[in-house]
Amino acid sequence: MFDYLQSALDQRQANGLMRQRRLLDSPQAEHITANGAAYLSFCSNDYLGLANDPKLVLALQQAATEAGVGSGASNLITGHHRFHDALERSLAAFVGKPAALLFSTGYMANIGVISALMGREDAVFSDKLNHACLNDGAFLSRAKHHRFAHNDINALDQLLAASTARHKLIAADAVFSMDGDIAPLAAYLDLCERYDAYLYVDDAHGFGVLGPQGQGTLQHLGLDSPRLIMMGTLGKAAGVAGAFVAAEQVVIDYLIQHANSYIYTTPAPPPLSAALLAAVDEIKHGEARRQRLFAHIHLLKTSLKLQRWQLAASDTAIQPLIVGDPHEALALSQYLQQHGVLVPAIRPPTVPVNTSRLRISLSAAHQTQDVHTLIRLLHSAEQSLPRHVNAA
Question: Which of 80, 236, 296, 366 is catalytic?
């Protein structure tokens, strides 16, 4: 087996698809220290700059003196602390749903919710560019899993019309993590009404950024319905860790009894929920942060004038620069790194073949000059780097 594993690793390296970890030795911020060197970073999903915010740090420190550093037991034993409970109530009220439930990660939320709500007699309908954990949740549910072309409303309509499943669930990213575009959720909700289906929305990259007060993509689009189940992550714009699911009370009550990734795990430490209570308050009153973030987005989109590589059509903090070839995407990322700027190269299987890219993540923590630096280096790279011709 070891020979097989090494051969697979060697092939991945030859294909330009090997992933590497960086050792971070600083707080998550726009300027970081990684692998012993200082960089301007466009890698983080810390869209509002809250990951190292003093108010959140203080809230966590104070809570640790009161609650300790570990939860000690699962939620259904003695692990559900009043900090967890207060955060669930705060998040539900913030996004306008009757109830909410905390999970340790967004991945655990998605696999837990879909596998709990769906079964063998049911059907899940997924966008082909959905995050992997939505697909894994559908697999674990044992429901029939239909995948439709990206944002293709007509294809979804046809699949729903043909389905005889007992229960139907449409699962979609709200903001797609590698493309930055927003799903046509209003059209999906209309289909839910027509075909008696439910809509599960992974708002990992919209919560905190989009909508009034940063409430998320559903509020940004003006959508509200009992058929909506929302998942929001708490390690991106909220700056800390974890995730929550907000829905009708009966859905949350059912998940507490049936979602394995909630039942059979120890919850995140209570001080993290205390820090997140502070984060929700910062998000509510964070209009200046959001305005600064969207100014950076506008600057990048209007000032970057490349011929060889092109930004994808995104109006969110995720700005993918499509390169195509994985070796060339990696070379571009390395060029920027050599000039003190980190932007990750995203390659298959994370994205489709021939769509390797640089995933530029903008933050309110960036300064205008930081964005200008990135623009200047990308223009320079286009003139300096040779085109890669894939021999395969």
Answer: 236
- Is 363 among the residues known to form the active site? no
Q: Residues 41, 90, 126, 177: which is the catalytic one?
A: 177
Cα–Cα dist 142/119, whole Å: 6
Q: What domains, with CATH codes, occur in the chain? A: 2-52+287-324+331-365 (3.90.1150.10), 54-284 (3.40.640.10)
Per-residue pLDDT tens over the stretch 266-298: 999 999 999 999 999 999 999 999 999 999 999
User: Which among 92, 16, 69 has a CA at the least distance from the CA of 247?
Assistant: 92
Of 205, 296, 327, 366, catalytic = 205
Active site residue 327: no
Write out pLDDT tens, residues 79-97: 999 999 999 999 999 999 9
205 is catalytic: yes
- Per-residue DSSP letters for 123-163? EEEEETTS-HHHHHHHHHHT-EEEEESTT-HHHHHHHHHH-
